[in-house]
Write a structure and sequence with these properties.
The protein is an alpha/beta fold. It is 32% helix and 15% strand. The chain is built from 8 helices and 9 strands. The strands form 2 sheets. It has a 5-stranded parallel β-sheet with strand order 7-6-5-8-9, with helices on one face. It has a 4-stranded parallel β-sheet with strand order 2-1-3-4, sandwiched between helices. The model has no long low-confidence stretch (mean pLDDT 93).
């Protein structure tokens, strides 16, 4: 049984194979998961992740039990997380879990009789977003994930997508990381060997291949407001790309959306492509 709980569960061979199949399929519908059932078990709000899994499952001929607001489930009556997972594993072929607590996906995997896919637990990890982020970089940098200057900006302390992406890219050779945040929101991981921390993004913009922007997570108690200006973004190298896992608040001006370096809507489209293949691999 294949659980996807962490980036550590994603070997390079697994990723390359998944990305290759996603590139060939390009999100086209099929019946590969006909008769299969996926449960979306979300204890936190979600638009893209829950909808992306729903769309991926449906486009492969499967069905989805959407529990996207647990306050309307038996959780409101006091049912434990473990009991909810065991109940839904009796009705499903896999469960996608999002939860506000670190380690929730691991707990789910210990009691579930079907594969668990971590869609974000606390401020820990978000491995399926990293599949998509890695695929985006892989696509736009000639199928390579090395020799890149990666600048990550925002709430790095609580940003689970940031932590997962750094784990992935740190596997590859000669990547340099710039971490841009106020000190109280700095990365809560051991820094990669080649890295630089600053609170001033202007120091590193012109030396960036991948700009990964995240919002401040106010729901986790973070207090800081920032937004990049169009002038700052236009100072990026022409060959660079700008990514954002969304939701966007005010970090990137909408005027930049039409810039060829803006790739965040491609990330969303790639979510469907990659999750189709991931669900097939998990439920085979």
């Amino acid at each position: 049984m294949l659980h996807i709980l962490s980036v550590n569960d994603l070997t390079d061979d697994f990723l390359y194979s998944l990305w290759s199949d996603a590139s060939k399929r390009k999100g086209k519908s099929n019946n590969s998961l006909k008769g299969k059932v996926l449960t979306n078990l979300f204890y936190e709000p979600s638009t893209r992740t829950s909808s992306s899994f729903y769309s991926a499952m449906s486009s492969c001929g499967g069905s989805v039990i959407p529990i996207n607001n647990v306050q309307f489930s038996s959780v409101a009556k006091g049912e434990s997380f473990e009991d909810t997972v065991m109940t839904m594993s009796a009705m499903s072929n896999a469960i996608v879990v999002r939860h506000p607590d670190n380690g929730a996906a691991d707990i789910a995997a210990k009691v579930s009789s079907v594969p668990i896919i971590n869609a974000g637990d606390g401020n820990s990890e978000h491995p399926t977003q990293t599949i998509i982020d890695g695929f985006t970089i892989y696509n736009f940098f000639n199928k390579k994930l090395s020799n890149l200057r990666v600048t990550l900006v925002g709430d790095l302390k609580n940003g689970r997508t940031v932590k997962s992406l750094v784990k992935l890219l740190n596997r590859f050779d000669n990547n340099h990381f710039n971490f841009v945040s106020p000190k109280n929101l700095s990365l809560s991981l051991d820094l990669p060997k080649s890295s630089y921390e600053t609170s001033d993004i202007n120091e590193v913009l012109k030396e960036t291949d991948v700009l990964y922007v995240t919002r401040v997570q106010k729901e986790r108690g973070s207090v800081h407001d920032y937004s990049l200006t169009l002038k700052q973004l236009e100072s990026l190298p022409e060959s660079s790309i700008v990514m954002h896992p969304f939701p966007r608040v005010n970090e990137i001006p909408v005027e930049f959306d039409k810039d060829r370096r803006a790739k965040y809507f491609e990330q969303i489209r790639y979510g469907l492509w990659c999750r189709q293949i991931l669900l097939e691999r998990v439920m085979k």
